[in-house]
Structure of mannan endo-1,4-beta-mannosidase:
Amino acid sequence: MSFTRRSCISGLFLLFLALACEANSGFLGVKDSQFELNGSPFLFNGFNSYWLMHVAADPTERYKVTEVLKDASVAGLSVCRTWAFSDGGDRALQISPSVYDERVFQGLDFVIAEAKKYGVRLILSFVNQWNDFGGKAQYVWLARNAGAQISNDDEFYTHPILKKYLKNHIEKVVTRLNSITKVAYKDDPTIMAWELMNEPRDQADYSGKTVNGFYGDSIPERKSVNPGYQVVTDFISNHLISEIYFATIHAYTDQWVSGQSDDAQLVWMEKWITNHWEDARNILKKPLVLAEFGKSSRGQGSRDIFMSSVYRNVYNLAKEGGTMGGSLVWQLMAYGMENYDDGYCIVLGQNPSTTQIISDQAHVMTALAHSFN
């Protein structure tokens, strides 16, 4: 498998694009529906910490980034998903189209350098569906201010000016020369993958043909697996695009199937993961990552029981050989970040039982990968 890095910034508007390079053995690749590193299978347990660049933009707060990456590495976690966007507002990376705050970019430089130091690979996301940190609504607002006639936020997916704005941002990030490591982002194997958008949805296209995620019209019988509402996306159709090298899903049972018992939510969760795994294996023939999941500490039931069940499901599917690559819990924080806590916050070491569950999963996934050699 080989392709030019330039393909990531000149192709069609896609949801998820993973980069690999056979010429550099440090880059993660995909072979036979599974992740591969240096010719060997790669399985992982990982985490989300969306806030890394935002916090690192202030040098006096960078110790929080170091703390989380160091503690994650000690626990065996090897992949982190985080934002490479902040469009307008406090500590904005992109102040206006193609205008950037160097101070914030240096914060992202620091995140990548620290991740490399602690052996954590990064998935970097380019823009948000939601209004947090700007999102597609901010792109629309900027385009309207520039005189573009845009009727609604969902034109983000189709309007040539908005698509150009995003492509320019992607190129800016991918070609960025890290001020600390002196390595361009596109040449740094620390960056495992590029995510074109966090949780895209298009209310203007209920067929799901514009963006992917949940099940849509391509396989109608799979719609029954969805949480029970129309989400205007299609997991199958867009993940079939050849430039997308692996598939991702999110899952929040306490929000999506709220009101059901803990046992019922766990049954739903297992069905959600397993159905996507079957389709990734049999139809897409690509690895699958559970890229966001969690259980709020503010709701009912035990977080530890929930996470243990999810991890067991992920491990058992990975044990089948290929396809299930790993999972990323939402979300890890540093000590003293209570103002960031959305209910899903986990501070490694603060809750020993949860930390042990997360670490155990990391080690059994690594051991399983080694057993495939």
Observations:
- Residues 1-25 have pLDDT under 50 and may be disordered.
- The first strand starts at residue 16 and ends at 18.
